[in-house]
């Protein structure tokens, strides 16, 4: 027979909660619901009866001696702890779950024992109290959680325990890593398996800690792990890119790691496209074959849902017509993705430019898996440590690249230009082209210099010499176009970028910054042809009501700003009046280019907007209508614009990082020539033209003659490449 009792009275063994732990006691007095209790440690306490746990008994004599009472309490405590350890809590939950919502401890005890005694009931009560993931104590019963709630609570409990372990073992380790990053100490060796090392966290904590650091490195403004990060990083300095420094100190990242790629979600190298190998191979085969696409006019579908042929490219009922023109391209010596070539001929009205553009849009599977991946790359990235191509190299540097001596599909733009540099309506068509040559800027410049000197045959070994006549025509057209743009308000900054070269690897890398090859005419020739083609196609699309992506810079500049600017102080002054250009569907003027509309499309191998614009033109040529409407392109920009912004940060900040490292490696004793570009009461800005850098220092470092245009020598210090910090330490006016 059970020894449980219903009401507390002197001599009754009871339990209550104190500090979230179960306490056992014996009632010695009771008066109006106020109890006097004897504890196993021989002390006494007072308690209100409602605080008792709802399992009472057994009952002993009220005259029981103190020592006997303590001995009995100890026996019951030990018995209940042992019984509680053996309670099949999960079995009890399985039996109760779905059957009852609430039940007392005795009900659970009776599932496994017939007429359980007070110790058994108390043991079940203790076990259920401890299992908070499956039960909730609602006196006098226990609520039984359903399976969904249990799963959620188990997950929350696991997360809580992991968080506590991470904070306990991770915070101290982060402080250690900071000391390593500051070179205050060396990183201690990790523990050998089976041995301990108090300075390193356990593997599970280390793995989680690395995850938190990488998330913060990739998305420092994100809310994921925000509270956890604040706790872990408490006491560490609030410096830029702290997770990057800690991961490098840990050895999880190499020295000079390019974390900007992680922030942009941009995978470097040329292995990112391997999951789409079948698509890539089909596209390469179609390009080599030079097939004419067969596109039927159809109602427009969203960009991401454009119907695709089964083989990933358009069917090929015939071949593209061949172009007889001997196009040539001009690029850097290292260029492999040749996306434009030109041919110029004279006419009675002036000259005609025919530009051949690589044509990936001819067969591109918009909306397919490969396209979605390329869309989230957005553009190629060219860095001192290596290039990252937007397209798979099998396509961008091979099958689609306009390589001399190899037939390639191309979109050709034929633009007439009069002797005043003004262009007329252009003709756009598809063709197979076979370039006569791939020339470099330096070789082309040498030939142009020889032509200017009246010695066109002075460079017999120069591969560009054979094409001297075409280069001369191209330069004449480019100069006419540049002058026409200036008359239209164009602002041209003559600011050559220095070359950045890296030697060595890892922490031993050495940076060299200096002048690049000088090819002003050859570079201007190519630039003007690209601008001309993009402007001409913008008007061609307007006449046919084809929606396009436009580069816009709609700002009104003073008329006197038009022209070619060379001095740093003038360029800085004018740049203050310019706003950054933006990519928009609505065509508006581009102030710096001096154009009423500008549609980028001359780099479809390197920039996704150009690929989209080319696709609009190609689809119109093949089907008589554009592929996408204005509203669809607007939707596309919502995805594309953030991608281009993120990748643009990589292209801006990474070369600057190497320049800052160059200055730090040179030390703070070197004097650098520069020109003051701006000054105020607090700071003076100086352009270091040879390094393509702007630096500033406090006004008190400069004498009273400081003004824009003044030449100075400056000494540089406080350089921290990761923090993007550089300061002038000392300045001297050059007399």
Summary tags:
735 residues, alpha+beta, 5-stranded antiparallel β-sheet, 21% strand, elongated
Note down, in words, how this protein is organized.
By secondary structure, the protein is an alpha+beta fold. It is built from 18 helices and 28 strands. The strands form 10 sheets. The chain has a 5-stranded antiparallel β-sheet. Strand 13 and strand 14 (386-388) form a beta hairpin. Helix 1 (66-85) crosses helix 4, helix 10 (277-289) packs parallel to helix 12 (393-399) and helix 13 packs across helix 15. The protein is elongated. The protein starts with 12 loop residues before the first strand and ends with a strand.
What topology emerges from the helices and strands here?
Blueprint lengths: L12 E6 L2 E11 L2 E5 L5 E5 L17 H20 L3 H8 L5 E2 L1 H8 L5 H13 L4 E4 L2 E4 L2 H35 L21 H16 L7 H7 L9 H9 L8 H6 L12 H13 L1 E2 L25 E2 L8 E4 L8 E7 L3 E9 L10 H7 L5 E3 L2 E3 L4 H7 L8 E11 L8 E7 L3 E4 H12 L15 H20 L3 E3 L5 E5 L6 E5 L5 H24 L6 E3 L10 E3 L2 H8 L6 E3 L23 H16 L6 H37 L4 E9 L3 E6 L4 E6 L12 E10 L4 E9 L2
Parallel strand pairs: 10-17, 18-22
Antiparallel strand pairs: 1-2, 2-3, 3-4, 5-7, 6-7, 8-9, 11-12, 12-15, 13-14, 15-16, 19-20, 21-23, 24-25, 24-27, 25-26, 27-28
Helix pairs in contact: 1-4, 3-4, 5-6, 5-8, 6-8, 10-12, 13-14, 13-15, 14-15
Structure summarized in a few sentences:
The chain is α+β, with helices and mostly antiparallel strands and 735 residues long.
